[in-house]
Amino acid sequence: MANLAFRLGKASEIKSLAPVIAAALNRGINITIISGPSPHTLFPKQKEQNPLRENIKFPGSEKARFLHYQSNAELPLLLTRHNVTNLITLNFPPVTFGEYLPAISRDRHLFCLQATGDFLHMPPSLIAHVHRMLMYSELMTNTYLTAYPTLPVSDRAKFIAVGNPVYDILPSLDPDYIRHKYNLPSQRNIILLASANPHVNWWRHYVFSNPNRLKAAVNCVRANHTRLAYDAITSPRYISLIKTIKNWCQKNNALLVIKSKLKHKDPNYVRDAADFIIGDENGWYPLRFLELAAIAKLTISFNYSTSMFDAIAAGSPSLQIGIKDPTDPEKPELNPFISDSYSQNPNVCLVTDHRQLPQLLSNRPLSSFRLDVISRSKLLHNYFGFTDNHPPTSANTILDIVMK
Predict the structure, then answer these.
(1) Among 34, 66, 348, 370, which residue has the fewest nearby CB atoms (within 10 Å)?
(2) What pLDDT is attached to residue 52?
(3) CA 80 vs CA 77, 106, 107, 129, 350: distances in Å
(4) How many CB atoms lie within 10 A of CB 404?
């Protein structure tokens, strides 16, 4: 009989794996969650991300067995000792298993589940050690195969479309329950904002997120980016975008709910603008942004965040704000969700430059943001292989493949 295990490198990865684990437990399958390396100290500044039992809670998690390993060298023996025959992991870079990948995959089947757009960073050399690549859709499969055209035929055959298990919960989302869960008023319109990461690079931290225009300009000069000093003074920065969005919410008699992430460490002006701010603390699954998007009249996010897809899947129109970083321009070839006719469709998602946001909102009421039913259905089918008429059953599809 197959013994099934799931590998976690950080606690937040449970967002993608929890639906499959829950489905396995419902089938009476004994499962093991294996985390590492060094799970107790992996994230010293974000202890909530350490992949430990106390950080991994979802319906049914108490039934799972948890094992840890300190180094990749320990993992093959750990898997053998516990008779693991099938191991599911998210797409991974070479460093995840290192030189021990051949030993890990030699005596068991290794299944790799797509996690957002990061799968494009997985080198083709790793596919040889994977039994099946579990992809969201045929479109995602073709995106990878196009990016790596020399992939051997035997490895190309390993790709199979299974959908995104995160969305299996969509048919059961209850707006009344969600509002009760997050203590949100029942009669008020909600505008949901996914906060930006202010610390992703130098420009974001010292210029874009700096609340003081003069200090932002001085930072440019000190860093030998004198040409950016004028832009730092004249262009909208994070604080002004937040104020613009907040004022627009008030104008439209809507509450501003901000969904944050642990790694963002939001500036005070972000937290102060929120009517409600909701983080990831003590709850990676169900996906909180997905739940909140199900009750939002509009969702707003930055730089082609995949939260756009969560919003559209949950039935909310989406506004994407492109933060145009003059020191580190976006590289579309590294993100399959950027330059595509489906995601660049104003019937499901409106995209604007952060410099144009104040003008855009000044001319549009909340009621003007709508989600076209046909366009939404095409997007969900192409990216995730489901529609409202054929609801997602990704977790069970994955288990059928893994356990046969």
Answers:
(1) 370
(2) 87
(3) 5, 11, 8, 17, 50
(4) 6
The two structure tokens encoding residue 332: 């579309």
Distance from C-alpha of 344 to C-alpha of 320, rounded to nearest angstrom: 10
* Cβ atoms of residues 50 and 42 within 8 Å: yes
- Separation of alpha carbons 269 and 191, rounded Å: 17
User: Which portions of the chain are predicted below pLDDT 70?
Assistant: 1-2, 282, 304, 328-344
The answer to whether 141 and 383 have CB atoms below 8 angstroms apart is no
109 alpha-carbon distance from chain centroid: 26
Distance CA 167, CA 163 (A): 8
What are the pLDDT digits (tens) for 60-103? 888 999 999 999 999 999 999 999 999 999 999 999 999 999 99
Q: What is the DSSP string of 41-105?
A: TS-TT-GGGS-SGGG---TTGGGSEEEE-SSGGGHHHHHHHTT--EEEEE---GGGTGGGHHHHH
In three-state secondary structure terms, 185 is coil
For residue range 111-154, list pLDDT tens digits in order: 999 998 888 889 999 999 999 999 999 999 999 999 899 999 99
| Angle, CA 397 vertex, CA 394 and CA 403 arms, to 5° | 135
User: For the purposes of burial, counting CB atoms within 10 Å of the CB of 79, is it exposed (0-12), middle (13-18) or buried (19 or more)?
Assistant: buried
